[in-house]
Each structure stands twice: as C-alpha cells, then as structure tokens.
Amino acid sequence: MVKVLLLGASGLVGGELLRLLRLDARISHIIAPTRKPLSVMNKLTNPQADDMSTLLKTLSAPVDAVFCCLGTTRKQAGTQAAFRAIDYRLVVETGETGLRLGARHLLVVSAMGANPHSWLLYSRTKGEAERALSQQGWPQLSIFRPSMLTGKRPVPRLTERLTAPLFAVLPKKWRSISAKNVAQAMLQQAFTVAHSGTVIIESDAMQPAGKISDNRSAS
After folding, report:
1. Cβ contacts of residue 108 below 8 Å, gap of 6+?
2. Angle at 170 between CA 186 and CA 8, to 5 degrees
3. Is the entire prediction scored with pTM above 0.85?
C-alpha cells in the first residue's frame, strides 16, 4: 500500500489527481496540505495553513511518492515575487520535503516551453524549478509539461477562455489538454512505468492516444 504527498490538491490538475488517488486501491493514505480546507474524504489527511512553507516543515509521516501540482499565474499572484514564491520556491520546497519524508519518486506538473533561459517569466520560472528539482538527487523524477489546460476552474482565467478555440485545433503537440488527462498520465507514470533519473513527459504523450516514452532530460 502506497502513501503519497500531494501539493496543489485544490487546483485544476491536483483536484482531478486527488479523485483518482482516492479511487485507486493501491493508495492507502494521501497527505494534501492546503491553505483552505478540502472536503472530508476517506484516505485523506488535510493539514491547513496560510504559510505553506512553514507547514511543509512540520510534516513527519513517511511517504512513498510525491505529486506536485502547484501553479499560478503572474496576474493571479499579484506580483512577480508572489508568483515565483509559488511556482519556484514552494515547488522546490515540496521536493525537499518529499526527500526528507523518504519518498523515492517525485512527479511534478511544469509547463510546455519550460526553459530556465527563457525571456518569458512564466517559462523561465518553470524551467528554473525543473532544474532545481533535477539537482536534488531524486531516484525518480517525472516532469510533466502540458500545453494549455482545460477544465472547470473555481476562478476562470480570461487568457485561457480567449485562446481555447485556437489551442483546440492546433497540432497534437501544442493542442490543449484536459486536467483529467494530465492527472491520469501522472498516475500511470507513478505506478506502471519504471525509470531512474529524470524523465520529461510532453503534452502529446498525455493525450488519450499518447504514449509516455522515456524522454530523459539533458539538463
């Protein structure tokens, strides 16, 4: 029976993943820290605090795997510093916490186009987070790079609503992808695909007809 740590359970991908993890007979316990309380569910422990960095330091129960589905936008966060606090610092701290708790596999949602050298804040921050996680020495690190996500958000993002028609007809590699498909790909990677080191899963491999391959990072 597998115990997991899940960050971002109140978000689009994290919410779908939480549902899948609860339904999976192989999962015995889910620790999902959030700022606001989640609904009471079987298998779920939901510690809460406004300061997630401090909360992570209080966790002590051992886990086998870590799922990180954290993510926001510069507009939602309010400032560049607040955005980086979530998409970089908290993501990196999640990795550090998982290693401290004994996890062997970290699965993290990044973004298509993640590049630590990008001139775009979003892509650069995602790339820097990927690089930092790859330097933590994880036995298994799976990085998921979805294209534009679709699904029902508690607070809709205007940019996604405006660009959704375009992303729906783009070639498969860039086509929009549902949060449910990303969550299913993460679960598949965690329990049916064995690898060592860092593997990057691009968006088209997360589509229903896609095939996750052993695409190793050179970073």
Report:
1. 67, 68, 69, 91, 94, 95, 129, 130, 133, 141, 142, 143, 144
2. 30
3. yes
